[in-house]
Fold:
Amino acid sequence: MPLAIETRALERRYPGGVLAVAGVDLAVEEGEIYAFLGPNGAGKTTTVRMLTTLLRPTGGSASVAGHDVVAEAAAVRRKIGVALQEAALDPLMTGRELLRLQATLHGIRRAEGERRADELLERVGLVQAADRRIGTYSGGMRRRLDLAAALVHEPRVLFLDEPTTGLDPVSRAAIWDEVRALNRGGATIFLTTQYLEEADQLADRVGIIDGGRIVAEGTPEALKAEVGRPRLELAVARDAQGRAREVLAGFGEPLPDRDGLLVLPLPDGPAAVGRIVRALDDAGLVVEHLDVVSPTLDDVFAEKTGHRLEGAAAEA
Structure:
């Protein structure tokens, strides 16, 4: 199966010698949802801008939908849809007018453009607001309209740049449902996000970029398995934490405390929890809180980059 997105040693160096993207290799298959994670300044937005022909690479190569992003930029633009984080929507137009204009710009005949506009308004749940000025739309409505605009010409590859940043949970869930529906319809989706749950829920594969380089890639399940087994998080009285650490040390090397909780890896899984609790009880220690926590993409990100992703705090 041909690749929907392929890059080889892709590089972007800005004036002054700043290397924003430093030799990125990507291979995204057709029909895949690929989540691209990275902190601010890691190079993910620069990578997307190169893949969508908005920025020329200074090294390496990239192709999207079978076309080189430099030599065949016009062909790439005909095959892709792009919904950027900061949607440039005219506040004086109505939603229906915007979609019809987009159809015209893509060379779609008037009758067909009107049909597609109506169909997309229905698809993203904006029929009731179709003839209102965009300036009256909420943030969630604007993101859904921007997504609809990116779909007018039925693109093979869709780039979504942090599509749910700042949205309430209901609006975020609506975008997730639409992304899944688009993928079921055959679209390849390249998704940048700071929300780890979003990547975990939607992506077939995840790539983590840091310092302009890919530092990890794989399915969410495989990446989490790399980090390790589940861990035990528990709370005891503050003046008893020293003694509790001594007890826990009999079951393995405790990890650094996490938000006031004592943390112990469970290399054999949750089976050891009963023995640990009995040992604490025998030592006269009262467990105030206990939880077995499986590795998350936040743990993967911290392991691979040495810091937490900004969106993790927002999710918490």
